[in-house]
Amino acid sequence: MAGNHSVLNGEGRPLNDEHWLDAEQPGKRAGNSRPPAIIRTNAFATKSIVRRLDEAVVESVFRAYWKESLMSGVRVLVGTRKGAFILTSDEKREQWDVSEPLFAGWEIYHLKGSSVDPNRVYASQSSGWFGQTIQRSDDGGKSWEPVGNEFTYDGVPGTHQWYDGTQHPWEFTRVWHLEPSLTEVDTVYAGVEDAALFRSVDGGGSWQELSGLREAKGNLWQPGAGGMCLHTIVQDPTNLDRMFVAISAAGTFRTDDAGKTWTPLNKGLRSDFELPDPTADVGHCVHNIAMHPSRPDVLFMQKHWDVMRSDDAGDSWHEVSGNLPSDFGFPISVHAHEPETIYVVPIKSDSEHFPPDGKLRVYRSRTGGNEWEALTNGLPQNDCYVNILRDAMSVDQLDSCGIYFGTTGGQVYASSDSGDSWNTIVRDLPAVVSVEVQTLP
Prior knowledge:
Layout: E1 7-8, E2 14-15, E3 20-23, E4 39-41, H1 47-51, H2 55-69, E5 73-80, E6 83-90, E7 97-98, E8 107-113, E9 121-127, E10 131-137, E11 145-146, E12 159-161, E13 167-169, E14 174-180, E15 188-193, E16 196-200, E17 208-209, E18 229-235, E19 243-248, E20 251-255, E21 263-264, E22 286-291, E23 299-303, E24 307-310, E25 318-319, E26 332-334, E27 342-344, E28 362-365, E29 373-375, E30 393-395, E31 403-406, E32 412-415, E33 423-426, E34 432-440
Antiparallel strand pairs: 1-2, 3-4, 5-6, 5-34, 6-7, 8-9, 9-10, 10-11, 12-13, 14-15, 15-16, 16-17, 18-19, 19-20, 20-21, 22-23, 23-24, 24-25, 26-27, 27-28, 28-29, 30-31, 31-32, 32-33
């Protein structure tokens, strides 16, 4: 253990580093959450003194020691317009290894790792020439194999609304988002264009549509500027039957019965410039939603315009844009350990997709919205005209929460201190489409 730890003995005098030789091995980390009762010391710290040490002090010392000895790491999965990249680092997040491009030349809309088995990673590979392919890795991205790629709408798909208001047949184009199950390693969900939700229970080998979603007024859904895509899937860790999805341009929806039926969740949203009825039940262009797993009834939303919040599992929404310089943007994320701390990246407008005033600023609210502070340390503050897409921001689970985002200019930025300062992990990649982070044991 390095450093001068101010640990006191039973008589109020400090025990410095030389008093600590080692400790009895506590066993496997997962099976023993408390420090050992016996500490071996040298002659400067007798057993009687050690016994009088406050238990909380002993516990804090050993937690620090174990943390240093069993350091975690992070794996950042980056999808771009011309391939995928895997960026890895240890817990300090100071030095990064950058992989060679994977699936070079292909659009990689999304990569996502399983929380059940971190070595299981899925990728959505797409090309205007060669179509759609789902790839799976079982070794953390070192090797890949194509898996099932048949996405067939259930029954007679019917039609949805087109740009000009006419009806248009449902047509599969690509997979926008992959979301592995929180509990089953072989279960994974896929959000696709034209908007629908598919599920695989055999590791991506075959896919079945959860067609109840399109029964939630699917005939009134219409494409946004990027197509009619299901781009966000959020699972409730406390209720495996509950899931939320977001669709451009249809809105947000929730199932409480494992995908059989769905409810539109758009009360409180206004789309004055996009819809004939600004408060319609469906048709809103929701860009992203986020949840902290400890509070599954609280949702945050980055809408086409407006940053929104729900405190009742999406049944109603209210605006929390507050003092943001622009409330247009794409991603929104929640701090790993602070449920009221959220992050957005304001973009000038829906026609000018770059930061206001050419200054790249992440905004953080520690109050769940309304009150925002600009985070600029390490980010370019002049002549910066990049965009940050909806799936291109993520957080890790380390004690000092890391925030990551990628830009259409090919930069990937990281903060290891909750956004107070930023560093560039890599630059000059193809335009970044998605960023996901795995916290590794």
